[in-house]
Amino acid sequence: MPLTSTRTSQDWPCQVKPPGSYDWERSAVRWLRELVPARYGGYPALMRHPVLLARHAQIQVEHEIRVARTALQTARADLPRLGLHESVIEHTIKLYAAEVRQLQHIARSVRAVTRALTGPDSGR
Asked: What are the residues facing 2 on neighbouring strands?
């Protein structure tokens, strides 16, 4: 049961409880940890400070967007040289485009969680 009535945006990740609800920050940390390499879970500062973890997750996702965009932009030129069939190339281009869209949505979700973590009711 929520402690406060808080509406979330369409960018709010479904894996994270609404801000103000019981244990919402813990659910945010769990979700954010999934966005960074597993080894980062071993850094106590990132786990103790959800805002720091959110910052790193945002950087990580932005980097992944750049990688996916580069893969998309270079696919038509690079993939034929690898001897791939045209249908595989077309499928791969669609895959990269879908990944860019998904990562952009994740980036918006990280920003929404970050705003909630740093908002006036966050206690920070």
From this structure: 21
Distance CA 99, CA 96 (A): 5
CA nearest to 11, candidates 120, 110, 117? 110
SS3 40: helix
Distance CA 94, CA 73 (A): 12
* Alpha-carbon torsion (21, 45, 120, 16), positive or negative: negative
pLDDT tens by residue, 6-65? 457 899 999 999 999 999 999 999 999 999 999 998 899 988 999 999 999 999 999 999
The pTM score is 0.86
Enumerate the β-bridge partners of residue 96.
Answer: none
pLDDT the model gives residue 7:
55
How many C-beta atoms surround the C-beta of residue 12 within 10 A?
18
